[in-house]
Amino acid sequence: MNNTFRHTVPHLILDDFDGRQRVIIEQVVPELDGGKYPIRCMEGELLTVEADIFTDGADTISAAICCRPAGGGEWLRYAMQPRENDRWEGFLPVGKPGRYEYTLEAWIDHFITWKKGLSKKVEAGQDVLLDLRIGAVFVEKAAGRSPEPDALQLKTYAVKMLAPDQSAAVTAASDEALELLMLRYPDKAHATRYEKALALVVETPKAGFSSWYELFPRSWGREPGRHGTFRDCMRLLPLVAGMGFDVIYLPPIHPIGITKRKGKNNALVAGPDEPGSCWAIGSEEGGHKSVHPELGTLDDFRAFVAEAERHGISVALDIAFQCSPDHPYVKEHPQWFRWRPDGTVQFAENPPKRYEDILPLDFESPDWQNLWLELRSIFLFWIESGVTVFRVDNPHTKAFPFWEWAIATIQEEHPETVFLAEAFTRPRLMGRLARAGFTQSYSYFTWRNTKWELQEYLRELSSAPLKYYMRPNFWPNTPDILHEELQTGGRPKFIIRLVLAGTLSSNYGMYGPAYELCEHLPVAPGKEEYLDSEKYEIKQWDLDRPGNIRAEITLLNRIRKENQALQSTSNITFLRIDASAGHEHDWLIGYVKQSSDGQNIILTVVNLDQSNTHGGWLHFPLERFGIDAGSRYRMEDLLGGASYEWHGEWNYIELNPAVMPAHVFRVNFMS
Amino acid sequence: MNNTFRHTVPHLILDDFDGRQRVIIEQVVPELDGGKYPIRCMEGELLTVEADIFTDGADTISAAICCRPAGGGEWLRYAMQPRENDRWEGFLPVGKPGRYEYTLEAWIDHFITWKKGLSKKVEAGQDVLLDLRIGAVFVEKAAGRSPEPDALQLKTYAVKMLAPDQSAAVTAASDEALELLMLRYPDKAHATRYEKALALVVETPKAGFSSWYELFPRSWGREPGRHGTFRDCMRLLPLVAGMGFDVIYLPPIHPIGITKRKGKNNALVAGPDEPGSCWAIGSEEGGHKSVHPELGTLDDFRAFVAEAERHGISVALDIAFQCSPDHPYVKEHPQWFRWRPDGTVQFAENPPKRYEDILPLDFESPDWQNLWLELRSIFLFWIESGVTVFRVDNPHTKAFPFWEWAIATIQEEHPETVFLAEAFTRPRLMGRLARAGFTQSYSYFTWRNTKWELQEYLRELSSAPLKYYMRPNFWPNTPDILHEELQTGGRPKFIIRLVLAGTLSSNYGMYGPAYELCEHLPVAPGKEEYLDSEKYEIKQWDLDRPGNIRAEITLLNRIRKENQALQSTSNITFLRIDASAGHEHDWLIGYVKQSSDGQNIILTVVNLDQSNTHGGWLHFPLERFGIDAGSRYRMEDLLGGASYEWHGEWNYIELNPAVMPAHVFRVNFMS
Question: Considering only CB atoms, which chain B residues are within 8 Å of A368?
Answer without folding.
Answer: 19-20
